[in-house]
Structure formats: C-alpha cells, structure tokens
Design brief:
This protein has 117 residues and is mostly beta strands. The protein has one helix at 67-73, and strands spanning 2-9, 14-15, 20-27, 30-38, 51-52, 59-66, 86-93, 99-106, 111-113. The chain has 1 helix and 9 strands; from the N terminus they run ββββββαβββ.
Length: 117
C-alpha cells in the first residue's frame, strides 16, 4: 500500500524519464514540501513509493509535475509562455489501508490523470 506516481510522455510514447516532480502535504491552503525528485527511466520515483503504508496519513496532498521543463529537456520547442508549464494535482487520501497511485499521461498540450491501482 502507500502512495506512488508514474508519468508517461504521450508525445513520444515513452516514460517521462528525467522529469522533476515535487510532492507536498497540504492543509488549509498551505503546502509543505515533502520531497522533490527526478523520475527514473521507467517514469517513476527512483525511491519507489512516495509514502509507504506506515508513513501515509489521511489528508490532502499535492504533486507538481514540471511538464514544460521536461519537454524543453527533450528538445521540444515550446511557445513562451508554454501552454502547460507545471501540472499541479491536488488529491485526498481517505483510507490509508488502500494504495493510492497517481499516474499522469501528458504532452505539451494535454494531460490526464486518474486514481490507479
């Protein structure tokens, strides 16, 4: 159980290796930094789970994905300002006995997410 993420680059059909992701806890519109990391070659956190089942708590969280920075790193020419710069996902964890997987499918012009397993 715990919390994890996975990012896929739908423009290139690959995992988003090298993308910067930042995790925060949130409460009363305040965000507290937990960690920032670069995704590994599989588009996942290099440390595995963002929170394991013993550390995950009921509450609200924020993941920030540096979409524009990632595509610039890949050599994609983006307008200034880019259509998508950073994608911010605010979500809640209601049951710590369950796994919360937060995937992101993205391109420079679109993204989708869902609660995965």
């Amino acid at each position: 159980m715990g919390l994890s993420t996975h990012v896929l680059d739908t423009m290139h059909g690959t995992p988003a290796s090298g993308m910067r992701v930042t995790l925060y806890t949130t409460q009363d519109h305040q965000a507290v930094l937990v960690k920032s990391f670069l995704l590994n070659e599989d588009g996942r956190s290099p440390d595995g789970l963002l929170y394991d089942s013993a550390s995950l708590q009921v509450g609200t969280y924020r993941l920030v994905f540096d979409v524009a920075g990632y595509f610039r790193m890949k050599g994609v020419v983006l307008p200034e300002p880019p259509f998508l710069d950073q994608v911010t996902l605010d979500f809640g964890v209601a049951d710590i006995r369950q796994h919360y997987h937060v995937p992101l499918l993205m391109s420079p012009w679109s993204y989708s997410t869902y609660r995965g397993s």
